[in-house]
# Entry
Amino acid sequence: MSHQERFAWVHAVSTLLVAAYFANAIVSQRSTTTLANVDFQIPTVIAVIAMIILMVAGSIGVAITTAIQSHLRGDDEIHRIDRTDERDDAIQRLGDVTHQRITSVALIGVFALVAFELPHAYVAMALFATLTLAELGRAGRRIVAYRTGA
Amino acid sequence: MTPATKTRVRNRIRELRFAAGEMTQADLADAIGMTRQTIIAIEKGRYAPTLEAAFKIARALDQPLEEVFQFDQS
# Structure
């Protein structure tokens, strides 16, 4: 598995973990308030910070794992960890296009919520769901491309 | 998982690597500045390299381009 593919997995897992946290933070408030009045600001800020931390920690974890594997095999693979080439660029573009398509379609729904002046919490949740789906789509498309061909 | 996507560009890289002094995939990757995973993908026909990369591979194997890559017209 290439390093770039590992980073795509880190991206996918981080997104899933953050989405699970956000969903839990929203659902856990349902017993005390309505969905329209849930506190979404703090969970959103925590989710963004958590995403950054998970991505950085995951990338460091990938580098450490590669270094250990490289040492055990006795090769110099660790010196190539930063190397990317045209295939990585092509796969990156495929992921970006997927992200763009999902965002473009899903944002129509978000605009509809705004147009009908629905509660801010609904808009925030729809926006969060849009970005989560788009990020999962990007990471998933990249993983599929690495596994099956670009 | 979806089945692997095959390109219509066939190649003899694996065969020519061995003919060129048992050159490894990592050696070839280093020679042309690509990753070993990309060389693997090209050899398996899962990725069609750009023209520039194809020329680099042919040059590294000391072969003309058409000896390394063929286009499947069927």
Notes: The CA atoms of residues 6 and 46 of chain B lie 5 Å apart. The first strand of chain B starts at residue 9 and ends at 11.
